[in-house]
Amino acid sequence: MRAALRDPRRLRTEVLAGLVVALALIPEAISFSIIAGVDPRVGLFASFTMAVSIAFLGGRPAMISAATGAVALVIAPVMREHGMDYLIATVILAGLVQVLMAVLGVARLVRFVPRSVMVGFVNALAILVLLAQLPYLTDVTWHVYAMVAVGVALIALLPRLTTAVPAPLVAIVVLTTASVVLGLDVPDVADQGELPDSLPSLFLPDVPLTLETLRIIGPFAVGMALVGLMESLMTAKLVDDVTDTHSDKTREAWGQGAANVVTGFLGGMGGCAMIGQTMINTKVSGARTRISTFLAGVFLLVLVVGFGEPIGRIPMAALVAVMVMVCVATFDWHSVRPATLRRMPLSETAVMLATVVVTVATENLAYGVVTGVLVAALMFVRRVAHVTEVVEVAHPDEDTRVYAVVGELLWASSNDLVYQFDYSGDPQNVVIDLSRSHIWDASTVAALDAITTKYAARGKNVTIIGLDEASAARHARLAGHLGG
Question: Residues in domain STAS (predicted)?
Fold first, then answer.
């Protein structure tokens, strides 16, 4: 960040990126406020406080956090059934839960997300962002379609001429100017809701500090914490790939929690990482530091409070054009090329499609990611269960037979292990060589115990050899102690 402050060209990129993101945040925050059932000011203030807070607290530079649709969907029932005070209490509690999760190391679980789930996550995001633009293109005049087309063309072609100014910012300025000069009657930002005319202030929720209050807000707070963390950590991992840098996921987790606590006490509806706006910031505008994140929040507040009237004149067509190009840049086109699909194992494609379908169907990225991870786990277990085999490798004398177990041994594969030996036909001494295998769990030890017992019932001896250090320790600790 210090390097960016010393480099005027780098600093200009960060500043302009923050401005573009701020403009894109305004209609999104208003829309999510409507979903949550709160005044537009609540969503706009949340976007300001989340962005500014996470710029200092987060572990992923250049990532944008603000009010989001996923969080709005989770907390909407609280607002509808119990009112604003309970909603704010839910946001604060959710932030504390996220901090607790960070302390417990939940952030480290993101490394268990397979690449196919990440690809599905990115593709689903692009589809959802595109679908979110359709209401702005329905029952409108031809002027709107023309403006979107011009905006898309400007964003796509301008970088070929110059990158001095972000193309999305140029598109917004040009289309807004054209709309005002030509007097076009097209939907604009002001149509989405009333913009605030004052700064956010301290908000202390008036709720009783009782177990009954905890019973009401607890489930929603935990749900918001889980959805917000999952979306934020997945977005951080995505930005890591885009920028080819590493981020501190644990710091990001507790940073999100702290930002939600701050947001709640300032009357905001809470939030998490915004993938679309983050892609505008990093992939489209080229920002790389916390400066852009901080300025996105500052510009947002300055624009809606100090320049509400001109900002309200920005045509929605201009912002739709920006988001359409974000979708195009975000979607992993390589993943759906025929050549890629032919080369990719069917299981990997199934995981990616499952993630996309569930995410788009539920409009919840967390559900899609969980589904994708579960499908990937089932596919992995299925593969492992079918690659383990028992082969006869030696018959040194008429009283001895040596078997080798090839493959990983865990509950999915070891359950069939018992049935792969000839208990009646084998000689007096049986040797089982596990040097080409590994014992992963108690199920495998129980299976080996069962094999030994079956041979012993026929008066035969079993010797297990070839155990690596970890397998030997696990076998020694559990063998003979797992029941009858």
Answer: 398-484
